Give the backbone structure.
Amino acid sequence: MRGSVKIRGFLIVLILLLIFNCSWFSIISKYTVSCDYIVVEECNCDTDVINNPNCFKIYSDTHIFGGKKQIAGMKKNIHYNIEYMNVTLPSYKERTFYIGDIIDLSKAEQKDKASARNEILKLRQALGNNYVRGNHEMDTFGEIGENRYTVYKGKILFTHGHQFRYPEKRTNYLESSRKEDYEPWDPSRSDDEVFMEAAKQAKKHGCSVVVFGHTHPVKLDERTIDGIRIINVKAGCSYLYIPVDSTSQVQNN
């Protein structure tokens, strides 16, 4: 009984601190992760994600199990978010997206393959459509193309972006755990072509904004093409201010 009372008390204090001050999160969080953001005063911390309907937090290309020492704490950080915040604060969960290559099944050591698959399945169960597949999650999302995109409120397209870089057959090859054939001589698209393809897909899904990762830019890369706002986020985590209306629900395809 005492244990459950302490846990409830901790969660109440946590929520109040987050609501009143952005800086508190960096103090109380055991696992800190540097986040990049488009410089907008209304959207640069977790409190803003909770309270501002136009503020989003994006995780991309963390490559857990991929052997990258610089993101060794990211796995714990993601689970911290899910356990203490996504469950208790619906607005935070609604506007936090995980856009692929979160768990690196492709480069995981053989002894870690089963654990990596299990982590992907747990994250999918906890996050639902807010976790879209990348090319390094391989076939754990099911059929080729499944969970490749999520559309938020009919306006924002969230996706990993490997399909913007690679021709369709190579994309399918990666999503099938290399079971499909592809032509290795078929060239990847240039950076400019990636953004053009992103704009094309946003239009196809009826969106005016598209957010993607995959390319690992050193900082946020934002462009506008044919009236479509295109945001390529860096590896790790980013805060984005994106004005949206209050209609529709999250869709997935």
Summary: The first strand starts at residue 35 and ends at 37.
